[in-house]
Amino acid sequence: MAETNTVHSPIVTYASMLSLLAFCPPFVILLWYTMVHADGSVSQTWDFLKQHGLQGFINIWPRPTALAWKIIACYAAFEAALQLLLPGKRVEGPISPQGNRPIYKANGVAAYIVTLVTYLGLWWFGIFNPSIVYDHLGEIFSALIFGSFFFCVFLYIKGHVAPSSTDSGSCGNIIMDFYWGMELYPRIGKNFDIKVFTNCRFGMMAWAVLALTYCIKQYDQNGKVADSMLVNTILMLVYVTKFFWWEAGYWNTMDIAHDRAGFYICWGCLVWVPSLYTSPGMYLVNHPVNLGTQLAIYILVAGILCIYINYDCDRQRQVFRRTNGKCTVWGKAPSKIVASYTTSSGETKSSLLLTSGWWGLSRHFHYVPEILAAFFWTVPALFNHFLPYFYVIFLTILLFDRAKRDDDRCRSKYGKYWKLYCEKVPYRIIPGIY
Ligand code: NDP
Questions:
Q1: Which residue minimizes the CA distance to atom 1 of ligand 1?
Q2: Fewer beta carbons within 10 Å, N or C terminal of the chain?
Q3: What is the pLDDT of residues 308-354, one digit of tens each?
Q4: Cα–Cα dist 353/317, whole Å
Q5: Membrane-crossing residues (predicted)?
Q6: Nearest one of 117, 124, 149, 118 to 28, comparing CA atoms
């Protein structure tokens, strides 16, 4: 039987699952419509819907066009080819609950560079203008919504009939299986890892590609790029660059090592990341705010600092684990807990928990700079509209929920050792407050 990841009560789990399944797709369309056609104003969209009702909403939902499918197919095929063909170091993932160790090819940075250079090259040499992507964004999101849904159905069926490893199985409930996923490490053939594709090479890569797209669209529209757009684009690109630099580390995180490939993770990465995560840039295209050099630089520096701290938290934990605690943390020998646990096959193993450095401030301190960085790439939009800040609010809720899910999972994995960690490091996210 598969683990179902239900840390909330069954009723909350069902309610949140069904509402996410029902509301996320229309939300993506309303977000795009508001940003691109309603001046970023929620009340303008609300008035439109009040006046025109459900039919009005159906009318604004763009039908997926052949061009949209073509753009998605070319992008997906290109990214899949890079994932398969570019050289990279062999990297071992963490041991799975069933005792398997997934093997990856770490070629994320190369794929990232090739993608951005190709995209900018296509624009520079007049072969493909990224503005086309912005002009057809609604159709592209619509195609992504439906295409990704069917992709999740494929994952569900594959999990039943042809799982790639023993880290798979049904929890006995079709909605849960579809939502949380059937397989931890689904692959096509031996080498094509589906979660690396959906989460990293499609979703995160699309974030960088769309950030550039919005910038180029503003340039095409106005003949120049406002400093607010520049700050937003640079910060989002620094963040995504950091992600690919650290991609092999990401393969050790909850998304990959604990969450199965289902609607929650895969649809989220295929649709939610390209739409919601890029939305502050989408807003700025038609709102070229001028910040002035000094303010722009302050925001840029603050954002880069937050991205660096977030990276350093992840790096600190990973170096500590990789060296078995034989490293220095903030210039000193690390303080730690040796936590033993039993795998689902009954074996006893142990992990080290770091209790100094960033990980001694709070148990999930890395979420603080993550949320602040998102704030800094949004704040160039200033405060005329609420919607650009939706991503920051969503991220805050997501990470607070994730901290709880992770704490609950670690408590059941490490038992008294986790209790000891909580005594030593009593705050969950914000030191001294929460
Ligand atoms: P991680 O998976 O990297 O860290 C949590 C895991 O680390 C735990 O499950 C536990 O795993 C281990 N661990 C916990 N405490 C300690 C400790 N004290 N010492 C050593 N190991 C410990 O967290 P996330 O996946 O949540 O975050 C990774 C990165 O991704 C962060 O930078 C985060 O901000 C970012 N992120 C961004 C999101 C976005 O949408 N923008 C969403 C989610 C994350 P084990 O079982 O191995 O002990």
A1: 253
A2: N
A3: 999 999 999 989 999 999 999 999 999 999 999 987 777 888 899 99
A4: 9
A5: 12-33, 109-128, 140-157, 196-216, 228-249, 261-279, 291-311
A6: 149
pLDDT band at 2 (very low <50, low <70, confident <90, very high): very low
pLDDT above 70: percentage of residues in the chain: 98
Residue range 285-300, pLDDT digits in tens? 999 999 999 999 999 9
Closest of 206, 261, 265, 247 to residue 74, by C-alpha: 206
CA distances from 407 to 352, 396, 428 (A): 15, 16, 8
Answer whether 367 contacts ligand 1 (Cβ < 6 A). Answer: yes
- Sole residue written with tokens 């960690």: 421
Q: Whose alpha carbon is nearest atom 39 of ligand 1? A: 395
395 Cα nearest atom in ligand 1: 40
Give CA–CA dist 79/101, Å, rounded. Answer: 24
Are the C-beta atoms of residues 79 and 197 closer than 8 Å to each other? Answer: yes
User: Which pLDDT belongs to residue 8?
Assistant: 61
Residue nearest to atom 28 of ligand 1 (CA): 253
Decide: residue 369, CB within 10 A, 0-12 exposed, 13-18 middle, 19+ buried: buried
- Residue 281: CB atoms within 10 A of its CB come to 28
Sequence-ordered strand ranges (E) for 371-427: none
156-166: b (≥16 Cβ within 10 Å) or e: bebbeeebbee
- Residue 311 CB neighbours (<10 A): 21
Q: How far is the CA of 288 from the centre of ligand 1 (A)?
A: 36
Cβ count within 10 A of residue 280:
29
Given CA atoms 64, 200, 106, 409 in this order, what sign does their dihedral have?
negative
Write phi, then psi, for 397 (nearest 5 degrees).
-65, -45
Does residue 253's CB lie within 6 angstroms of at least one atom of ligand 1? yes
Q: Is 254 in the pocket of ligand 1 (CB under 6 A)?
A: yes
Summarised one tens digit per residue, pLDDT across range 219-275 is 999 999 999 999 999 999 999 999 999 999 999 888 898 889 999 899 999 999 999
Which residue is closest in CA terms to ligand 1's atom 44? 399
Task: Give 122-179 pLDDT, tens digit per residue.
Answer: 999 999 999 999 999 999 999 999 999 999 999 999 999 999 999 888 888 888 899 9
SS3 of residue 24 by DSSP? helix
Mutational test site, ligand 1, from 410, 417, 418, 427, max ligand atoms within 8 Å of CB: 410
105: which strand partners?
90
